[in-house]
Amino acid sequence: MANFTKISFKKGELNKQLADLFKSLMEKGVVDALLSGTLTQGRELERFETLLAKLTHSEFAISFSSGTAAIHAALACLKLEPEDEVITSTLNFCSIANMVNLIGAKTVPPC
């Protein structure tokens, strides 16, 4: 029969340990990716997304090269039609309005 030792964690301690592990693996991954010559796809990106999904208790994690690309993907998932309107803040970076226009919807100011 196996001997098991009960390990108790204070609230938030396990998440801190996972975050520390994630940080160290991410730093190693960045160095490995730079040395591999593959910056936008490849084994390191797959490892990063897998680890991020585990850390966030998600089935999947998808990374993007920029916030603009992430906004474009999110809007595309909504399957907006040309007559659809998206309310955006007037105090915002222009890429949000540009991505709304790119998918064919209309931007609408909040007021």
Q: Could you list some keywords that capture this structure?
A:
111 residues; 2 domains; 4 helices; 51% helix; 5% strand; elongated
Can you tell me about this structure?
The protein folds into 2 domains: 13-55; 67-108, no CATH class. Strands 1-2 form a two-stranded parallel ribbon. The chain is elongated and about 45 Å long. The longest helix is centred in the N-terminal third of the chain and has 24 residues, at 13-36. It is mainly α and 111 residues long. The protein contains 4 helices and 2 strands, in the order αααβαβ. The model has no long low-confidence stretch (mean pLDDT 81).
What's the arrangement of secondary structure elements?
Layout: H1 13-36, H2 43-55, H3 67-77, E1 85-87, H4 94-102, E2 106-108
Parallel strand pairs: 1-2
Helix pairs in contact: 1-2, 3-4
Low-confidence stretches: none
What is the succession of H and E elements?
HHHEHE
The number of distinct β-strands equals 2
Q: Main β-sheet: number of strands, strand sense, barrel status?
A: 2 strands, parallel
Quick take:
With 111 residues, the chain is mainly alpha-helical. The chain has four helices and two strands; from the N terminus they run αααβαβ.
